[in-house]
């Protein structure tokens, strides 16, 4: 079983639309939305939910007001400024509490509980393009890396049971903890970028991350015709850095129209864009089947 991750150093490059198109072209892959902070692949795939699960991660202090005598010891001890006194009782600021348990341990009145932290929900669903695993972290919650790891584990179980040989994941933006959790152990990262200076900067950072985790990576330039010379420069730099260029997509409002219609671009388009996506997908399959990239930065055939 192979795992492909679609990522982009920055948001807004069309990563999710590309993921949906590849999920459509792959036929029968397990689909995973690892952008747990701001998931939107479900808007295109409109999955039917089969099971919902709570995501519990860590613990958080909770003062029992009736037991608190307002001595203020917990306020003094908390290194994260998560406790204060209000109307003679201790109050926890949930956004600052790091769950270190110091206040719970040293409260003389045993007035602080330490319940599990309910951070979000994750789902197993069925979409028209295949089984889907996705999640939504609650606003302000952390531990997205752990949730990503959990989703990948569930996707592998589903793929095993269904004898599916491919998992396609829509990765989180940026290069932080959830991206690292998405990337480690993947068979191939597809970096979707666009011809702007900020996208190039972010592409370089995400490519470094792939190299660090020894994940082969390829590059797909979206909206390439908005700045053809910069698009060419991206491809040149990518090749120099050992990345495979799998194609260019022209700027096309079909991307927005497809999202509004709840479809993958390749489901409704027979134009240049869909053709470029099909060609890119063939090249990606070739890389996956070969398992390596040759010295010229091309997929070996
Ligand atoms: S240490 Fe316990 S009793 Fe004292 S203020 Fe904090 S919660 Fe209340
Ligand atoms: S658990 Fe730790 S971080 Fe949270 S309120 Fe208590 S002392 Fe502060």
Q: Which small-molecule species are bound to the chains here?
A: iron/sulfur cluster
Categorize the overall geometry. elongated
Bin the helical content: 25-40%
| Residue fraction in strands | 15-25%
Strand adjacency order, main sheet: 3-8-9-2-10-1-11-12-13
Order of helix and strand elements from N to C terminus: EHEHEEHEEHEEEHEHEHEHEHHH
Mind telling me the C-alpha Rg?
A: 23 Å
Overall number of structural domains? 2
Tell me about this structure.
By secondary structure, the chain is α/β, with parallel strands linked by helices. It folds into 2 domains: about 1-55 and about 120-290, Rossmann fold (3-Layer(aba) Sandwich); about 60-115, Alpha-Beta Plaits. It has 11 helices and 13 strands. A 9-stranded mixed sheet has the order 3-8-9-2-10-1-11-12-13, with helices on both faces. Helix 1 (about 15-25) crosses helix 11 and helix 5 (about 145-160) runs parallel beside helix 6. The radius of gyration is 23 Å and the shape is elongated. Mean pLDDT is about 90; it is low at about 295. The site of one iron/sulfur cluster (SF4) has 13 residues, from helix 3. One iron/sulfur cluster binds near residues 77, 80 and 100.
């Amino acid at each position: 079983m192979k795992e492909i991750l679609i990522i982009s150093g920055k948001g807004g490059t069309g990563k999710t639309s590309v993921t949906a198109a590849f999920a459509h072209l792959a036929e029968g892959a397990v689909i995973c939305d690892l952008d747990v902070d701001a998931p939107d692949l479900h808007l295109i795939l409109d999955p039917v939910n089969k099971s919902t699960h709570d995501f519990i991660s860590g613990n958080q202090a909770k003062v029992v007001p009736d037991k608190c005598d307002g001595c203020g010891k917990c306020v003094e001890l908390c290194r994260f400024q998560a406790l204060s006194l209000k109307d003679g009782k201790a109050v926890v600021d949930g956004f600052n509490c790091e769950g270190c348990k110091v206040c719970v341990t040293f409260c003389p009145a045993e007035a602080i509980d330490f319940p599990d932290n309910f951070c979000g929900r994750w789902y197993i669903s069925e979409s028209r393009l295949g089984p889907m695993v996705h999640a939504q972290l609650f606003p302000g919650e952390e531990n997205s890396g752990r949730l990503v790891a959990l989703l990948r584990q569930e996707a592998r179980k589903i793929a095993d049971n269904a004898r599916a040989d491919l998992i396609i994941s829509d990765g989180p933006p940026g290069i932080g903890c959830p991206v690292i959790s998405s990337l480690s152990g993947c068979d191939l990262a597809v970096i979707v970028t666009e011809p702007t200076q900020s996208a190039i900067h972010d592409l370089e950072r995400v490519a470094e991350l792939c190299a660090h985790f020894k994940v082969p990576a390829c590059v797909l330039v979206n909206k390439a015709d908005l700045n053809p010379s910069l698009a060419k420069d991206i491809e040149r730099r990518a090749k120099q850095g050992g990345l495979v260029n799998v194609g260019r997509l022209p700027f096309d409002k079909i991307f927005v129209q497809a999202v509004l219609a709840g479809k993958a671009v390749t489901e409704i388009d027979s134009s240049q864009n869909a053709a470029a996506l099909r060609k890119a997908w063939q090249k990606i399959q070739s890389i996956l089947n070969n398992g390596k990239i040759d010295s010229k930065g091309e997929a070996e055939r």
